[in-house]
UniProtKB/TrEMBL annotation:
Pfam families: p450. The chain crosses the membrane at residues 6-25. Its cofactor is heme. This is Cytochrome P450 oxidoreductase. PROSITE patterns: CYTOCHROME_P450. One of its GO terms (molecular function) is monooxygenase activity.
């Protein structure tokens, strides 16, 4: 019988052998290819042990400062090229999106942990197109009005939670963002400190933890996926995470089916999705991960973005005064009414604020998301082989003074320009090219209405004894506050406004 140590040793030996066999004739060694400057690493594993497990933005930003607009790293057997300026991102991932938009293989996080079902990691193909089409039907700009009524109710609930549970502001942000998407997808709302919401954020963080470069050897050396199952020491852990994630998703889908049987289910996307799948194209796993991806993506981005706004307000309060001046002019200096969707044209500073939230500290995808080149390509003297992985270095771009003057400062004024109302212009928060987030308009709307109302009603004050390190706001928080901050209602009039107009939103069905 094999001991654990023997199994791991055997697998490690097999990894080395298979790696060398797979790279003897590798294209990247061919003289016909030329890559950007390569960061020095170690044999076989390359730079896998250099990248931090979390908060990779500062690491990648430092390398960009050293190597310029592009550099190359090796994560195991995979070659990654980092794009460190908007210019090269535009040239390659936007203008040449047809060949720069697939995904590299992820045997652990996609094939095992996700049953091949996560849209974000799917390579180009019929399955990706059909799944994305389904998501587009619910998240497209044509559905804006569908989301707005839920964003209105849930942002009022958010204000009420801030007024009565200010110390739980981070949980309130999570409940708000989750409840909007849950209302549309499943026809139900979320409650503050709902254990199901906590589990959903847990599955998202588990996925992000495992997705970090260098975390899983097999994702760096996809050839290892061909090892006999008994040698795949990573597989049991991946399968446990898959079953746990699937169970969390299935709880929600089973709830829809149970309510349908009782005649108590509201119209929602999940019902339409089930009805449209009469041909059985999407098996249970694909159904669950399609719906689960919507829940995760619709929840996590908004939650983190609102936290970024609060950190920006506490550390750079000057812009808050400019936002308040506009809000008070439109909604009344003595808390006459809440900001509404119909005020959007009169509140350009809030729109600029939302863009700055997305730009300021790109905390969701600090080094972007990897895409795979589908054919050989040449650019400015470099020659890239098919299969090269590309990422936009989000942290380096966002904090580049040549692209954004005083980039560390939270300064919405920088977006008061002709592109103000184009939610994708001026930052890369939703990604470039054909992989742009399909629900970007929903995320932007979530943040806009919440930011307008929170800034109108509350002050955000930094704890001088525990200043916020805005360069180290954690991406993974385990349902804890990402930083200390004091939140207080602006005045009694604002408190009364919240009590008067938001209490009903807490109890609404």
């Amino acid at each position: 019988m094999f001991t654990t140590n023997t199994t791991v040793l055997g697998a490690a030996v097999a990894a080395v052998v298979l790696f060398y066999l797979s790279t003897i004739l590798t294209k990247t060694r061919s003289p016909k290819y030329k890559l950007p400057p390569q960061v020095p690493g170690i044999p076989i594993f390359g730079n896998s042990f250099q990248v931090p497990a979390t908060q990779q933005g500062p690491w990648a930003k430092e390398l960009a400062g050293k190597y310029g607009e592009m550099f190359t790293v090796k994560f195991g057997g995979s070659t990654w090229v980092f794009l460190n300026s908007s210019r090269v991102v535009n040239d390659l991932m936007e203008k040449r999106a047809a060949i720069y938009s697939s995904r590299p293989p992820f045997p652990m996080t996609q094939d095992i942990m996700s049953g091949g079902g996560r849209l974000v990691l799917m390579p180009y193909g019929d399955r990706w197109r059909k799944t994305r089409k389904v998501m587009h039907q619910i998240l497209s700009t044509r559905q804006k009005d569908t989301f707005r009524k839920f964003q209105d109710v849930e942002s009022k609930h958010l204000l009420y939670d801030y007024l009565h549970h200010a110390d739980r502001w981070f949980s309130a942000n999570g409940r708000y963002s989750n409840s909007v998407i849950m209302s549309v997808v499943f026809g139900i709302r979320s409650k503050l400190d709902d254990p199901q919401v906590a589990k959903l954020f847990e599955t998202a963080e588990l996925f992000l933890e495992q997705q970090q470069p260098g975390t899983n050897l097999v994702d760096g050396f996809p050839v290892l996926a061909g090892l006999p199952t008994w040698l795949q020491w990573w597989r049991p852990r991946g399968e446990r995470l898959f079953e746990y994630t699937k169970k969390v998703y299935k709880t929600q889908l089973d709830g829809v089916k149970a309510r349908l049987e009782k005649g108590q289910q509201r119209d929602c996307f999940a019902v339409d999705f089930l009805n449209s799948n009469k041909d059985g194209y999407f098996d249970e796993t694909q159904q669950l991960f399609t719906l689960g991806t919507l829940m995760e993506a619709g929840s996590d981005t908004t939650r983190v973005s609102l936290g970024q706004m609060i950190a920006g307000a506490a550390t750079y309060p000057d812009w808050v005064q400019r936002a308040r001046a506009q809000l008070d002019r439109v909604c009344g200096a003595n808390a006459e009414r809440l900001p509404e969707w119909t005020d959007r044209d009169e509140l350009p500073y809030i729109t600029a604020t939302v863009k700055e939230i997305f730009r300021w500290r790109p905390n969701i995808a600090e080094i972007g998301a990897p895409t795979s080149l589908t054919q050989d390509d040449e650019y400015e003297g470099y020659r890239f082989p098919k299969g090269t992985v590309f990422v936009w270095n989000a942290w380096a771009i966002a904090l580049n003074p040549e692209e954004y003057p005083e980039p560390e400062r939270f300064y919405p004024d920088r977006f008061l320009n002709q592109d103000l109302n184009n939610g994708l212009k001026g930052h890369w928060a939703f990604g470039p090219g054909r992989r742009v987030c399909v629900g970007w308009n929903v995320g932007e709307g979530n943040v806009w209405i919440a930011a307008a109302r929170l800034l109108y009603c509350f002050d955000f004050v930094q704890d001088e004894a525990h200043p916020i390190d805005t360069m180290r706001i954690p991406q993974l928080t385990k349902n804890k506050a990402p930083f200390p901050v004091r939140i207080q209602v602006r005045s009694q009039a604002h408190a009364d406004l919240i009590e008067r107009t938001c209490r009903e939103a807490v109890t609404a069905e």
